[in-house]
């Protein structure tokens, strides 16, 4: 299922962190494939809706799923959610997202602590003064007890204000103070690294720790992760903390994560999209996968090559065929992933006219070249460079999909 590009790619050396549930292990870092993570947006206390969404996210390819754990009801629900997922045969590791009261919830509902494979701890939201250190220690001790991994996730919007104030005061006392924006970035990195070292001092090994420093702007994110990569060997989780909605969120996430991953920085990613009303939560998984696949780091889904269309193409039919082919591949991939694992690397072409259509179709594993405006209403189909059929008529999409299905069955069977 997974392919990794290594030639010309400098991987930032990090500890390998194993996130486990039963016999299922997801490894973050250590040169392993970059892991895709997602997060539910249901009320965790609503077990039915949360289980339904976790199943959808896992089916889409999310390898870790994070849940909000903010109340005793949510903490107790985690146990039931885990049990229902196991009964459904879904062993995706669950990550508990804790803010403010995580130390209490993990202590008061130990079954929740045991059901989670990883805890997300925000150093800016664990308490103030000595209480912060005490609460943090409780969460780390709990992770040690139950074998959970920990992500220490610092956010620009919830940075430890005491740390920031101290660093700003130190900066102002210098003969030549740095710009406050520089101090803010340094404070974010300091919070992450000092918290990680604190966790190690409490006995949590480095190979159970993942770091993140999330902000909302691309340039700042790039600088933060380059600083983290230079100063540590912890596994790194990438993502903009609030990417945005629609094309803005997709473009910002793709730009930021693409640059860092191409530099060899990043071991797990999450694309934090604001869903459009009624849109599927799985969109963030799709975008994360496509970022990794576009960089040649992993293969999740057959690649569809399709032209943008021009005055030569019969636009509506061509667009419909390209869209239906993409949807067909995504719908079939969960089954193919198990029965025909090599199918993820398949290349499919759906082209719109005679200019580039036959050439691109011949270069794909399987491709179709539609007739353009004024051309003969026949679409040749090529399999690995050889013309095997000519399709025409209203059922062209169904027949092409059937040919793809047959190609997968005969080519990628184990």
From TrEMBL:
Cofactor: [4Fe-4S] cluster
Domain IspG C-terminal: 304-406
InterPro entries found in the cross-reference section: Dihydropteroate_synth-like_sf (IPR011005), IspG_bac (IPR016425), IspG_bac-typ (IPR004588), IspG_C (IPR058579), IspG_TIM (IPR058578), NO2/SO3_Rdtase_4Fe4S_sf (IPR045854)
The EC number(s) this enzyme carries: 1.17.7.3
Cofactor-binding details, from the entry: Binds 1 [4Fe-4S] cluster.
Residues at which [4Fe-4S] cluster binds: 307, 310, 353, 360
Domain IspG TIM-barrel, residue spans: 25-288
GO biological process, any: isopentenyl diphosphate biosynthetic process, methylerythritol 4-phosphate pathway
UniProt pathway annotation: Isoprenoid biosynthesis; isopentenyl diphosphate biosynthesis via DXP pathway; isopentenyl diphosphate from 1-deoxy-D-xylulose 5-phosphate: step 5/6
Alphabetized GO MF terms: 4 iron, 4 sulfur cluster binding; 4-hydroxy-3-methylbut-2-en-1-yl diphosphate synthase activity (ferredoxin); 4-hydroxy-3-methylbut-2-enyl-diphosphate synthase activity (flavodoxin); iron ion binding
Family listed: Belongs to the IspG family.
NCBIfam families xrefs: ispG_gcpE, PRK00366.1
HAMAP family referenced in this protein's UniProt entry, alphabetically: IspG (MF_00159)
Protein purpose: Converts 2C-methyl-D-erythritol 2,4-cyclodiphosphate (ME-2,4cPP) into 1-hydroxy-2-methyl-2-(E)-butenyl 4-diphosphate.
Name of the featured protein: 4-hydroxy-3-methylbut-2-en-1-yl diphosphate synthase (flavodoxin)
Species annotation: Sutterella megalosphaeroides
Taxonomic lineage from the root: Bacteria, Pseudomonadati, Pseudomonadota, Betaproteobacteria, Burkholderiales
Gene (name only): ispG
């Amino acid at each position: 299922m997974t392919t990794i590009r290594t030639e010309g790619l400098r991987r930032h050396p990090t500890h390998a962190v194993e996130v486990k549930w039963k016999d299922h292990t997801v490894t973050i870092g250590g040169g392993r494939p970059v892991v895709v993570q997602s997060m539910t947006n249901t009320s965790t206390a609503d077990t039915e809706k949360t289980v339904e969404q976790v199943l959808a996210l896992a089916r889409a390819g999310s390898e870790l799923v994070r849940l909000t754990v903010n109340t005793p009801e949510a903490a107790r629900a985690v146990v039931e959610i885990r049990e229902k997922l196991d009964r459904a045969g879904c062993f995706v590791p669950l990550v508990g997202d804790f803010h403010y009261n995580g130390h209490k919830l993990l202590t008061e509902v130990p079954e929740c602590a045991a059901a989670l494979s990883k805890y997300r701890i925000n150093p800016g939201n664990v308490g103030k003064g000595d209480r912060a250190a005490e609460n943090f220690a409780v969460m780390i001790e709990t992770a040690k007890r139950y074998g959970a991994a920990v992500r220490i996730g610092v956010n620009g919007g919830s940075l430890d204000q005491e740390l920031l104030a101290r660093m700003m005061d130190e900066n102002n006392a210098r003969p030549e103070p740095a710009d406050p924006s520089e101090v803010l970035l340094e404070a974010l990195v300091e919070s992450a690294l000092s918290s990680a070292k604190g966790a190690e001092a409490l006995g949590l090994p480095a190979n159970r720790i993942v770091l993140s420093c999330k902000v909302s702007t691309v340039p700042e994110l790039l600088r933060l992760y380059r600083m983290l990569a230079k100063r540590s060997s912890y596994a790194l989780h990438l993502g903009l903390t609030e990417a945005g909605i629609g094309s803005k969120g997709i473009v910002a996430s793709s730009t930021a994560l693409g640059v860092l991953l191409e530099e060899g920085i990043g071991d797990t990613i999450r694309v934090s999209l604001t869903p459009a009303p009624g849109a599927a939560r799985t969109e963030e998984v799709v975008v994360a996968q496509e970022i990794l696949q576009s960089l040649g780091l992993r293969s999740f889904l057959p690649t569809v090559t399709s032209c943008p269309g021009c005055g030569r193409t019969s636009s509506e039919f061509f667009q419909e065929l390209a869209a239906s082919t993409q949807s067909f591949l995504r719908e079939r991939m969960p089954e193919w992933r198990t029965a025909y694992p090599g199918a993820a690397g398949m290349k499919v072409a759906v082209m719109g006219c005679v200019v580039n259509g036959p050439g691109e179709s011949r270069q794909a594993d399987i491709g179709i070249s539609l007739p353009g405006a004024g051309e003969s209403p026949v679409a040749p189909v090529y399999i690995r460079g050889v013309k095997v059929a000519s399709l025409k008529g209203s059922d062209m999409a169904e027949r092409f999909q059937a040919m793809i299905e047959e190609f997968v069955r005969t080519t990628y069977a184990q």
